[in-house]
Every structure is written in C-alpha cells, then in structure tokens.
Design a protein that fits this description.
single chain; about 15% strand; Rossmann fold; about 260 residues; about 40% helix; 7-stranded parallel sheet; 8 helices; alpha/beta
Length: about 260
C-alpha cells in the first residue's frame, strides 16, 4: 500500500478542540491540508477566524465554532451537531488544555501554594472537557462502528516533571489512563483510542513563560535532543493516529518528546 492510501483522510470528518493555536492548530492543518473536513472548536474567536481564513485560502474545508469547553452542554451539542451535519465522525482530537503555572521548583508551585480555584479550572478544561468530548463522540462512533479518538496528554502525565504544576500533571495522567480504559471498551466497535504525550513544544500553553530565556532553557534541557519542538513536528503523529495507518493501534499514549522519556 502506498503512503497516500495508508494515510488517506480525504473527506474524513474531524473535530479538533483547542484548535485556534498551538498543537490544536497543527492537528487541524495536517488534517485539512490532506483533505479532511475539519470543525475547529476554541474559546478564541479571533484566532479561529484567522486560521479559517488562511486555511480556506489554501482550498481546505474547515469551519469554526466558538465554544468554551467548560460549558459541557454546549460542547456536547456542538459534537452532536457536527455528526448530524456530516452523517458521521471519523476523527476527534480531544486537545483543549491550559497550563496550571510553574512546578515545585518555584515557591508558587509547591503543593501548599496550589489554589483551589486554579485546580478546579484546570480540571474543568484539561480533564472534564476531554472526558465529555470522548463521551459525546463515542456515541456516534459506536453506532457507525468506526472512528479515531486522539487525546492530548503530556510527558508530564507519564512521569514526574518538576517544571509543571500539580493540576496540569494530575490531569494529563488522568487522561492517559482514560485512553487505555476507553480503548478497551471501544475495541469491539473498531474505534481506535490513542493519546499523544508531547514534551516541550513552542506553544502558548505555558502562559508566556517560554518567552523567558531561562525558562526556555530549562524546558529545552528536558530532552536529549536539547531543544523545544515546533508544533509542525506533531503533524506526522497526528495524521498517523487519525488515518487508516493506525488500524491496529489502540490504547497507547505515545511520547513525542525529543527523547525526554528515555533519559
């Protein structure tokens, strides 16, 4: 089988949460530029409009909906409406997420400094919205007996990572295990469920901290490769997990981290 068949997502119906920037935008781009019909969800209306304009100028089929993923009913309704409009869902990227601030190497990141409001907000976005996205999409994929569910976890969810905060690492560990659990349930329905565990990528998720040269250096040294990745470098893995190439791949959380998990 040739690569264009193996990784064919032409006319596939996809949803990406957290799609206006960073890794979600990279996921959207690789799907849309390879012929998928992508619905982009994000709270950032202006960012969505910029991305849609640019992708449509390239001939891509994309649409956007402004959704706060903390509004779980709106999130469910949007997923259901997309499935109803297109008659199916082929790939759903549960990607929306935020940082919780620095880890315990700084005074504001130690466990006694974690604020309840921050904890609750990070869990609402990084965990509850991911669960609701998967729950809503699974209904349609079970019915059609096919589909791909892709969850954004983190290497910080697979090991202790002192540079990131407690709420973030807790949620990313939780979604990694949801991937394994859900993959087992959905395997008889031919629905593949996998996770992506990024290391240090050059996105806005760190709340602007990556603009600090010292913080940037700390994140770069996490990986033996010795640098921070570009969102472009996630596209190959995203396409693999959404395409026919992943037909026997489920229940995995794949690090894409420049070797950080190996060190």
């Amino acid at each position: 089988m040739k690569a264009d068949q193996l990784f064919n997502v032409q006319n596939h119906v996809a949803i990406v949460t957290g799609a206006a920037s960073g890794l979600g935008l990279a996921m959207t781009e690789v799907m849309a530029e390879n012929g998928a019909r992508v619905t982009m969800l994000d709270i950032d209306a202006a960012g969505l409009e910029r991305a849609v304009s640019r992708l449509r100028a390239k001939g891509c089929t994309v649409e956007c909906l402004t959704v706060d993923v903390r509004d779980t009913q709106a999130l469910r309704n949007t997923i259901d409406a997309t499935a109803a409009k297109h008659g199916r869902l082929d790939a759903v990227f549960a990607n929306a997420g935020i940082s919780s601030g620095p880890g315990f190497l700084t005074p504001i990141g130690v466990i006694e400094a974690v604020q309840q409001a921050n904890w609750d907000n990070v869990l609402a976005i990084n965990l509850t919205s991911v669960f609701v996205t998967l729950q809503a999409a699974a209904v349609h994929m079970k019915r059609q007996r096919s589909g791909r569910l892709i969850v954004t976890s983190s290497v910080a969810g697979l090991r202790s990572e002192p540079l990131v905060g407690y709420p973030y690492t807790a949620t990313k560990a939780a979604v990694a295990n949801i991937v394994r659990h859900l993959a087992t349930e959905l395997a008889p329905f031919n629905v593949m469920v996998n996770g992506i565990a990024p290391g240090a990528f050059d996105t806005n998720i760190a709340g602007g901290r990556l603009k600090d040269p010292e913080v940037r250096k700390q994140f770069a040294t996490m990986a033996p490769i010795g640098r921070i990745a570009s969102p472009e470098e996630l596209k190959g893995l995203a396409l693999l997990l959404a395409s026919p190439a992943s037909s026997f791949l489920t229940g995995t959380v794949i690090p894409i981290d420049g070797g950080a998990m190996a060190s």
